Amino acid sequence: MAEAFIVGAVRTPVGTKKGALAGAHPADMGAHVLSSVVERSGVDPAAVEDVVMGCVSQVGPQALDLARTAWLSAGLPETTPGVTIDRQCGSSQQAAHFAAQGVMSGTQDLVIASGVENMGMVPMGANVGFALENGLPLFGQGWSDRYGDQEISQFRGAQLMCEKWGYKRAELEQYALESHQRAAAAQDAGHFDAQIAPYLGVTRDEGVRPDTTLEKMAGLDPLREGWELTPAVASQVSVGAGAVLIASERAVKEHDLTPLARIVQLSLVGDDPVYMLTAPIPATRAALRKAGLGIGDIDVAEVNEAFAPVPLAWMEEIGADPATTNPNGGAIALGHPLGATGSVLLTKLVHELRRSGGRYGLQTMCEGGGQANTTIIESV
């Protein structure tokens, strides 16, 4: 099987839903990261064979195959096609998997995996509005026969995780506080500078709260009475985009590109859709097993902080080192622009491995429907 290499990885700053990026058209934001990854890698854009873009709420400004409109909005060659995909929160991580698989199969040599989501302009759930407005069920009869009429949501799933693993509010808040502290320290140390392509005058992630405290968190109401969850221990509603250029060994030589990392393993599993957020645990086990690695071989892990119990349970079950898990903070501090987060996390992972001198990196995230992608890369 052919090797696949990451030869470029860039992201916008992650903005808040009412911040400086909230008015940015998703196609223009996507255009920015696409042109940035092409420019930084030095590749001829006409050689790019496809753009695979993740986006969850594909409605309004995020409709009409955003991958294609973003590429054209960037003024890049009309000969490169694009496709937009939805695997919920893992959409752009799946975009990276599809891009890498195209290269590893030998059918493609240069593919960009990207993701875009402006949750300030297109609210979460906007793409299910037609069903709700017209009294149509979101799930078919077969689903109802199998799972009944119980609530299916990420919020309930996170609370179910708290109950299963015994996490209490104080432990969740302590984790959230550390996420902000790590992100603030990384910002101050310039750890994100090389990976960010400033946009609309914004150079830093907007959601980090270096001055937050446990006392401030304690004053927030729970998401639902009797629950352990509050807004402080959940990912932020965000705006952002990321892009990763994946190349074959042949393309690396032909275009004189500089590999940043090698794709080692791509895994995907499904788990309980009611719990919804637990799949990173079996997905990580599957990826490590197939790669012939142990968790002790992983120098940096990016585990999406959809809610604090997700990385907490993952670390507990996998036996991962908290020091190397989300070392520069996660979505609780930095934000979670849904379809863009996979490419943002992969960009963070590539750059942190190179900055820290680590060898292996692992990325995983929970996804709607009880799914998870896991990607393992090796810095080169």
UniProtKB/TrEMBL annotation:
Protein name: Acetyl-CoA C-acetyltransferase
Family the entry assigns: Belongs to the thiolase-like superfamily. Thiolase family.
Domain Thiolase C-terminal: 257-378
Transmembrane segments: none
The species this protein was found in: Halostreptopolyspora alba
Keyword presence, Acyltransferase: yes
PANTHER family hit by this protein: ACETYL-COA C-ACYLTRANSFERASE, BLR7806 PROTEIN
Record's keyword annotation contains Protease: no
GO molecular function, one term: acetyl-CoA C-acetyltransferase activity
The enzyme's E.C. designation: 2.3.1.9
Domain Thiolase N-terminal: 5-249
Active site: C89, H336, C366
NCBIfam families: AcCoA-C-Actrans, PRK07801.1
Key words, A-Z: Acyltransferase, Transferase
Gene3D superfamilies: 3.40.47.10
